[in-house]
Amino acid sequence: MVTEQAAPPDLLAALTLLDPGRMMEHTRQLCAPAFTGRRVGTQGHAGATDFLLKQWQYLGWKAQTQIFPLSAPVVEQATPLLLEQITDEDEVLRTFVQRTEYCEHPRSAFQPEITAGSVVLFSDEKALESYQGTWVALHAVPLGTAFTTLASELAQQGALGLFTPLYANANGFLVKRLIAQAPVALPVLSVRADLHAQLVGTRVRVRVPIFAKISEGYNVLAHLPGTEERFATAPLILGAHYDGVGDDVGGQRLPGATDNAAAVAVLLELARVIAEAQIQFQRPLLFAAFDAEEVGAQGSHVLAAQLKAQGQIPFMLNLDGAACLNEAVWVEPGPQTEPVLQALDQAGRWLDIPLIVGNIASDQRQFVQAGFPAVGLSVGAAQLHTPGDSMERVQPEALHRAATLLLATLWQLVT
Q1: What is the per-residue pLDDT for 4?
Q2: How confident is the model at residue 3 (pLDDT cuts 50, 70, 90)?
Q3: What is the C-alpha to C-alpha distance for residues 127 and 123, in angstroms, rounded to an integer?
């Protein structure tokens, strides 16, 4: 039953230790150019992994990485993409801008060399032979195996590649797609829909050095033991994914500030306050910076499967989006989560933070599928998977709201 008593004095004292400035700085560090957007399998991502591991170790937590092979490939680029309109004499008329005017297609074949040709519009009424030496603009991507078949037929007839239309989001960006799919027989670029139509009848020069890469993921796990043996196999997990979609090679930065560096910064700040206040928890705590969320929540799937095989029975809270203030904090409850929801509700009452049920497609769902009580939380995020997801979107007040709500919730569940 939810009670209306005041928050415990010890909790109130701990809440005063939370530092929004420190959370902003950790968010900024995770968005640094050296980490190149934290896409799994990149050197920048490896640097972010090492950074997080050292942060938790510095705070006195027992920290380690959990390495796992990815079950799905990631779209990679060997060199920058290129799309230019040219004259018949190969003089450049226009160089298109990646991410706002064109972008990768996750089914493209690998084409590291520059090729030039005219652009023609595909029509079922044309003979395939008429596409020899051209880039073919499709009205839309055919469904199912039809895309594979069409690309193979056009490649056999000497087509150079394909252009597909893609609509920009409200902020003018073409959203980055990261999960690679089986490549078709031709290189493919997605072009903003209005510009896609304008390419027809012109001459272009194109490079599409895109390929699928299987990498390893690295969850970063930080532990604090509990004081009660009866809870030894029933930890409370607080998670947030730290991977992003990654910067465009030779193009724009995609820092992933609100998705999800800010939430990881909240975890680091909670770990610092818990250590500084020397809070004693009856139940073990496991803080998890999940990897590969952007390619199918693979990191959380691996951890949930491991805990289930070990006979563990955890509670799980997952934070995805801690950077932008909305009218209320979104909560996605899983089955059998009444104790967690009661603690969240009481924390919201203590702190005057409104909560509403919302849809949060993130790592907690892997724990729900494994049969564990798991709840997803989101304070707010903005311009996901685009260059607009930057530090300018991060609000210190949102970070503080996420941290205070979670600390008050943890306090009830593990003390």
Answers
A1: 61
A2: very low
A3: 9
d(CA 97, CA 100): 6
pLDDT of residue 128: 65
Residues in the chain: 415
Residue 229 to residue 266: CA distance in whole angstroms: 28
- CATH code linked to domain 75-212: 3.50.30.30
Which one is the CATH code of 9-72+214-414: 3.40.50.300, 3.10.180.10, 3.40.630.10, 1.10.3110.10?
3.40.630.10
Q: How far is CA 342 from CA 49, 279, 337, 415, in A?
A: 34, 21, 9, 15
**Domain ranges, ordered by start, for the chain:** 9-72+214-414, 75-212
pLDDT digits (tens, 9 = 90+) for 34-72: 999 999 999 999 999 999 999 999 999 999 999 999 998
Calpha distance 139→11 (Å, rounded) = 59
Residue 388 has pLDDT above 90, yes or no: yes
